[in-house]
Amino acid sequence: MVTAPVQLTDLIVTVAVERPDVLGRLSAAVELSAQLGELGDHLIGHFVDEARRAGASWTDIGESIGVTKQAAQKRFVPRESPDLGKPSLDRYTERARRVVVLARHHARFSERIGTEHLLLGVLDESGGLGARTIAALEAAEGTTRLALLHELDTTSKQRPDPQPFSAHCKKALELAVREALRLGHRFVGTEHVLLGLLAESEGTAARVLAATGVTHPAAEAHVVAEISAAISRAPRPALPGA
């Protein structure tokens, strides 16, 4: 059996340090418990993705986690759907939510919302860390947007209502949450949406980003550095008695 790296005592201390009052601690414990459940789901999802990349069949994966092949596929294979699902968007920042709204706008003549529309949304939210990361890493200014526009299907199609997110797009949004959790962030920002698009690796957005020189390792390094710099610049609370 694998030994959990986090012990109950560690979790109790974490909650106790954050909240001074007993009811506040109880609320924090409930919130942390929900986060741990989500972490567990993404932990399994990470290794399911790894097994698939290594060539494991859905039958093998189902046997490993104690379910049928069909149950494993239903849980881990993203389907086209108009519903992003909760609680994933609950964790999104206002900027990240606007990215999703902008993606819908860019897909207004399409049958579905794809990763290409989501990436355009990231670029349109120019003040977000996602767009700033692309600007810092792309081969030349504006090349990602130009390459992306070249990839768009310009044939006008009947837009269904509700309009579904493509399987690749839904996977990228799921991975955006996983990227935030992996980096220890309690929010999903535009930078995590970008990392999710890069981690998805098979959609139009990932192909365009690769062509313009934006890689997952470089994007993650830039995001971590920018967030660390922002934290260091933030004013520190005065010590008692100072």
From TrEMBL:
The keyword Transmembrane is annotated on this UniProt entry: no
Pfam families for the chain: Clp_N
SUPFAM superfamilies found in the cross-reference section: Double Clp-N motif (SSF81923)
InterPro entries the record matches: Clp_N_dom_sf, Clp_R_N, CLPT1/2
Keyword terms, alphabetized: Repeat
All residue ranges annotated as the Clp R domain in the record: 89-230
Official protein name in the record: Clp R domain-containing protein
